[in-house]
Write a structure and sequence with these properties.
3-stranded antiparallel β-sheet, 2 helices
């Protein structure tokens, strides 16, 4: 896997499919740092609780890359969003 210093941020919105019990299911939104939109959508379905929704019973409503005006802010969020990586604060 090729890594770079900064990963783009993606905003992904999804919901469960309508069921007889709930005609208007709630929307779930996540901001995810991923190398591309395919990985971002995969992580969206991987991270929520399996009791909340599953990929087989849901759909991705919206996904888009978020462009930050200040690149430094995006880098700080990336370090905060990945707790398994070592902190690189000076």
């Amino acid at each position: 896997l090729k890594t770079s210093d900064t990963l783009p941020e993606y905003k992904v919105v999804g919901c469960c499919l309508p069921a007889p019990k709930c005609h208007t299911p709630p929307l779930y939104q996540m901001c995810i740092f991923a190398p591309n939109h395919v990985v971002a959508k995969f992580r969206f379905w991987r991270f929520p609780s399996p009791l909340t929704m599953k990929e087989s019973s849901g759909e991705t409503v919206y996904y888009r890359q978020v462009f930050e005006k200040l690149l430094l802010r995006a880098q700080e969020l990336q370090h905060l969003a990945t707790p398994w990586l070592p902190r690189l604060h000076t």
